[in-house]
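The instructor's notes for this session suggest beginning with a concrete chain rather than abstract definitions. Hand out the sequence below and ask the class to guess, before any prediction is shown, which regions might be ordered.
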Amino acid sequence: MKYVMEALRRKEAEERLPVIKLEIDYELATLYDAMQEKDTVQIIKSKERLKQLSEQWISLID
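After discussion, reveal the predicted structure:
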């Protein structure tokens, strides 16, 4: 049963990592636009979202 759970977790990670990468790319573009416009509210939101995405990424590769 342990091996089945590990295999399922690996498959989930393989499917989720590309999605997270796209979300990070999008959020970085959003952050860049906010910085250009000096939109401090959006800058804070984007940084928080990037932090969440990086934590998800790290949890999947561990």
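Then share the key points. The chain has two helices and no strands. The mean pLDDT is 91.
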